Amino acid sequence: MSRALLLGAGNNRTLKMGVGLEPVPGEIVTLDMDSATKPDILHNLDVHPWPVFSDTFDQVHAYEVLEHLGQQGDWRGFFDDFAEIYRVLKPGGYLVFSCPLPESVWAWSDPGHTRIISLESLTFLDQDSYAQVGKTPMTDYRGYWKGNLKLVGHQKTEHNLFAILQAVK
């Protein structure tokens, strides 16, 4: 049976995105730090490692969650957060998420937002993108970032970025 992990689920128990991704999750496991929402896994996402086995989920979903993790400019924290997602995904699994666009009034209006996730910052998660190191101003994080998440789809609305990344293992 295909499984999905829903990060920062709150009271949500449904997947909002990812239609057409195979396999379709038959089980949704929720993870949240608020015990009042009765998640399947009670845990603060800023604490690593997450209490989840490696290579467990076909999909990880995070709607309006990633911008609450870490701090802007903390590149180690950025990669550590995505490394946890990469770790729990099965080979070929998908990260499906939404977050405010950097230019949206909501990006920094919410006092809980601590980081911007832009389409451009996702470039650093794809190992093939590092071919441009030395040709562009791209910083080389390959000594730290060992994962590989490839952008396979995205959409922008007035305020949000919706994206799907695939774990290459």
Oligomer: single chain
Q: Provide the β-strand percentage band.
A: 25-35%
pLDDT < 50 runs, ≥5 residues: none
Kindly provide the radius of gyration, computed on alpha-carbon positions and rounded to a whole number of angstroms. 15 Å
State the distance separating the first and last CA atoms: 20 Å
Strands side by side in the biggest sheet: 3-2-1-4-5-7-6
Mean pLDDT: 96
Please outline the major beta sheet.
7 strands, mixed
- The string of secondary-structure elements, in order, is EEEEHEHEE
With helices defined by DSSP (H or I, 4 residues minimum), what is the helix count? 2
Structural class: mainly beta
Shape, per Cα inertia axes: globular
Helix-residue proportion: 10-25%
Helix and strand layout, with pairings?
Blueprint: E1 3-7, E2 27-32, E3 41-42, E4 57-63, H1 75-88, E5 89-100, H2 106-109, E6 149-156, E7 160-167
Description:
The protein has 169 residues and is mostly beta strands. The protein has 2 helices and 7 strands. The chain has helices spanning 75-88, 106-109, and strands at residues 3-7, 27-32, 41-42, 57-63, 89-100, 149-156, 160-167. Strands 3-2-1-4-5-7-6 form a 7-stranded mixed beta sheet. Strand 6 (149-156) and strand 7 form a beta hairpin.
Overview features:
28% strand; 7 strands; globular; mainly beta; 11% helix; seven-stranded mixed beta sheet; 2 helices; 169 residues
Concise overview:
With 169 residues, the chain is mainly β.
